[in-house]
Amino acid sequence: MRELxxxxxxxxxLAEIRAALEGLPYKILGAADLGGLPEVIEDGETLLANxxxxxxxxxxxxxxLALADDTGLEVDALDGAPGVYSARYAGENCSYDDNNxxxxxxxxxxxxxxxxxSFRTVxxxxxxxxRHDWVAGSIRGEISREMRGTAGFGxxxxxxxxxxxxxxxxxxxxxxxAISHRGQALKRVKTMLLRW
Length: 196
Known about the structure:
The chain is α+β, with helices and mostly antiparallel strands and 196 residues long. It has 5 helices and 8 strands. The chain has one domain (2-195): Maf protein. 33% of the residues lie in helices and 26% in strands. Strands 1, 2, 3, 4, 5, 6, 7 and 8 form an 8-stranded mixed sheet that branches. α1 crosses α5 (181-195) and α4 (173-179) crosses α5. The protein is globular and about 50 Å long.
């Protein structure tokens, strides 16, 4: 089996990726399996730039094929914010709850009636010799008025999917992977991995 490094320290993200890629002829390794990966400063102006930086760094460091993603929540009433700054919306070293509370407070302060939002993911697959390719996935939804649910991570408790009448945090992992931005991108990654 060929090794595939997932360039993330986010345990929730790693679990989603492992579940989605189960059954492929790859040994999936997280940062912890390798004693850590070099820290990458995510200073790109786009999701693609950050994902490329992380994937290339992990591939060069380990000598293995590497997969990295960058994800952004884009809220219509906030002109697409937090976007590429989603992970640090409430400041450096903030928690998921900090980000969610800030987002809900911003929309409340504005009196925003339009709560539509998109979750977007860009995933990059990179080889040590710098061959790389990328895919993307997105889903439309709304920002709930309060945090709901205990599953998932990040903005899952506030990202409401009208068709399901639930937030991402109220869905099981298989339910979320079937419809989410990351789940869509991972279906395309599977095709890419089989082709490579």
